[in-house]
Design a protein that fits this description.
Elements (H helix, E strand, L loop, with lengths): L10 E3 L15 H13 L4 E3 L8 H10 L8 E6 L11 H13 L6 E4 L7 H12 L4 E5 L3 H13 L4 E7 L6 H4 L2 H7 L3 E5 L22 H6 L3 H17 L6 H9 L3 E5 L3 H10 L6 H14 L13
Parallel strand pairs: 1-2, 1-8, 2-3, 3-4, 4-5, 5-6, 6-7, 7-8
Helix pairs in contact: 1-11, 3-4, 9-12, 10-11
Length: 313
């Protein structure tokens, strides 16, 4: 059975593999296979996806790769998205779970999430029924605020289950899950906190600036395009800390997220993304460096809350 003790320090995200326009590129399966192979070679065997990422496309691609891997060697995380629920089903959570497992080519899903709090707590109650039929390694909730997390945990506890993971947007530019007490609650209740968008979809990678904007027409361009000057200034400042560690700018937010006792999910669309993420695990930031990075991020004052999210409270 999967547990927090056998998880790697980071997860690889397959959101962009869904080719849903969020990232502005179409990623072909032949281009993605080397990414999967390199990650497995480096021991990064935890993959995060969801049916809603391309309406099954991301799961299909990941499933193609997983079938060549011994089942015990890969950890699979996917989600029930309320907006995609089949209203005609007696239990839409179970239906999506089973459909995702079939698409991924596995019998049971290691980490299964309620993707967002729409319809909560009813969907969490339905998830308890799913857990009676299937061996879910870790049950998680995503995009939930503190009260919603506590409510989900109570529902699961009443059913003899446990909330094992929380997945929220958490980065240098969006620390509301920390400010609201969610990180502390997770620590006190032995809940793993998965941080997604640690690199703000590339905004904190050092790749994009006023001279190198985001892909035209992508959601990223719409979200971050007006803040390129601030992003450029922030990344230039972060580069000074990166030099001290002989590291890349993109590795610092990953190292920072790990230092905050979270498990970052890193989107991987190129082999070097995997290699950089693996090396970032070994970067040890000092307390002063962490404080400096957070002050620089606060100075940038960039709103990164996306249209599907809320500021955690």
């Amino acid at each position: 059975m999967i547990s927090k003790n056998n998880l790697p320090k980071i997860a690889l995200g397959a959101w962009a593999w869904g080719n849903d326009g969020t990232f502005g590129d179409e990623h072909k399966i032949d281009d993605l296979k080397p990414i999967y192979d390199k990650s497995m070679e480096l021991g990064l065997n935890l993959w995060d996806t969801a049916f809603v990422y391309g309406m099954g496309t991301s799961e299909e691609v990941l499933g193609e790769f997983i079938k060549e891997t011994p089942r015990d060697d890969v950890i699979v995380s996917t989600k029930f998205t309320p907006q995609c629920a089949d209203s005609s089903s007696d239990n839409a959570v179970t239906l999506m779970y089973e459909n995702s497992a079939k698409t991924l080519g596995i019998d049971e899903i290691d980490i299964f999430w309620i993707h967002n709090p729409v319809g909560a707590p009813d969907w969490t109650k339905k998830l308890t029924e799913t857990a009676k039929e299937h061996e879910i390694g870790i049950i998680g909730v995503s995009n939930h605020d503190l009260e919603e997390i506590k409510q989900a945990n109570e529902i699961l506890n009443d059913a003899g289950l446990k909330l094992g993971a929380v997945q929220n947007h958490y980065s240098l530019l969006n620390r509301s899950s920390e400010d609201s007490g969610i990180l502390q609650y997770c620590k006190e209740n032995d809940i793993i906190f998965f941080s997604y968008m640690v690199l703000e979809q590339g905004a904190l990678s050092g790749k994009y600036d006023t001279a190198h904007p985001f892909p035209e027409g992508s959601d990223r361009a719409n979200a971050y395009g007006d803040s390129l000057a601030e992003i450029e200034e922030l990344n230039n400042a972060l580069s000074e800390i990166a030099k001290a560690h002989d590291a890349k700018v993109a590795q610092l937010p990953i190292a920072w997220a790990i230092s905050k006792d979270t498990l970052p999910i890193i989107g991987a669309t190129k082999v070097h993304h995997v290699e950089d993420a693996a090396d970032a695990v070994n970067i040890k930031l000092s307390d002063d460096e962490i404080k400096t990075m957070e002050k620089l991020a606060d100075k940038a004052n960039i709103n990164t809350i996306r249209f599907w999210e809320k500021e955690m409270k």
